[in-house]
TrEMBL record:
<dbReference type="InterPro" id="IPR003680">
    <property type="entry name" value="Flavodoxin_fold"/>
</dbReference>
<dbReference type="Pfam" id="PF02525">
    <property type="entry name" value="Flavodoxin_2"/>
</dbReference>
<dbReference type="InterPro" id="IPR051545">
    <property type="entry name" value="NAD(P)H_dehydrogenase_qn"/>
</dbReference>
<dbReference type="InterPro" id="IPR029039">
    <property type="entry name" value="Flavoprotein-like_sf"/>
</dbReference>
<comment type="similarity">
    <text>Belongs to the NAD(P)H dehydrogenase (quinone) family.</text>
</comment>
<protein>
    <submittedName>
        <fullName>NAD(P)H-dependent oxidoreductase</fullName>
    </submittedName>
</protein>
<feature type="domain" description="Flavodoxin-like fold">
    <location>
        <begin position="1"/>
        <end position="213"/>
    </location>
</feature>
<keyword id="KW-0560">Oxidoreductase</keyword>
Length: 269
């Protein structure tokens, strides 16, 4: 398989740096082709602005989504944007690797998404009618690819459990997994999360390597997160609200996975 790792950490000697190098070695040893977009090493420009479009007139008001779609269609995007899009097209699997900073990804990685996921490339595609609202959420230009997060977290695992003070890890990752991966059609694999990263001891690192290797060698067979596909009947059109009863006993983000059980009326007592 072709595997793209989009990597965001400023220190090559960090835990993230070690895990990135380990992942590359495991994947290449297994016969996969690997590319790495090391955003800090690339000095990736995180800000989305008029400089992203080679033919934008300075006196013209910038409407970034429209400008990105026009530049994508006309081949007038900044060269670094087109190069990253080509990597995404090439990849069978996309891995985002980063430390959790302030409950999200580092700004440089968000800036990569802002610039690379252009209109016409990752969104604003497909038929928009009262019965179908575009090719997105399970369908789209990146359909058929698999995606996964590898993430380090400073806090303890219990802090990110169902009752943890920092919120369930699935909720924190929902904007990335559902909104960035699943939106343009990618299949989302469960994340690989390293907790208590700042307190990790050597023996703990050995165990993490073993667990990560198992995840990497099973990328093609791991059961994905069961997000609901937008246009397959679970949502009312055109309002795109989940149909009543499909949420089962879940609420919040969890309603948008098929793991939630339909409501079943209790027998009268």
């Amino acid at each position: 398989m072709n595997i793209l790792i989009v990597y965001a950490h400023p220190e090559p000697r960090s835990l993230n740096g070690s895990l990135k190098n380990f992942s590359m070695a495991v994947l290449e040893r297994a016969g996969h082709r690997v590319q790495v977009s090391d955003l800090y090493a690339m000095q990736w420009k995180a800000t989305a602005d008029a400089g992203d479009f080679l033919e934008h007139e300075p006196e013209t008001r910038l409407r970034y989504p429209a400008a990105s779609g026009e530049a994508f269609a006309n081949g007038t995007q900044a060269p670094e944007i087109a190069a990253e899009q080509a990597k995404l097209v090439w990849a069978d699997v996309v891995i985002f690797q980063f430390p959790l900073w302030w409950f999200s990804m580092p700004a440089i990685l968000k800036g990569w998404v802002d610039r690379v996921f252009a209109a016409g490339f990752a969104y604003n595609v497909g038929e928009h009618t009262p019965h179908r609202y575009g090719d997105r959420y399970g369908e789209g230009t990146l359909e058929g690819k698999r995606a996964m997060v590898i993430m380090t977290v400073g806090g303890r695992e219990a802090h990110y459990g169902p009752r943890g003070i920092d919120g369930p890890i699935e909720d924190l990752l929902f904007p990335i997994q559902h909104g960035i991966f699943f939106y343009p059609g990618m299949t989302v694999l469960p994340p690989f999360v390293v907790y208590s990263a700042d307190r990790l001891k050597p023996e703990g690192y050995t165990a993490i390597e073993a667990a990560l290797e198992q995840r990497l060698v099973t990328l093609a067979t791991t059961e994905p997160v069961a997000y609901r596909v937008q246009n397959h009947g679970d949502y009312e059109m055109p309002g795109l609200a989940l149909k009543v009863g499909l949420e089962g006993k879940t609420q919040g983000f969890a309603m948008h996975t098929r793991d939630s059980s339909p409501c079943i009326d209790e027998p009268a007592s």
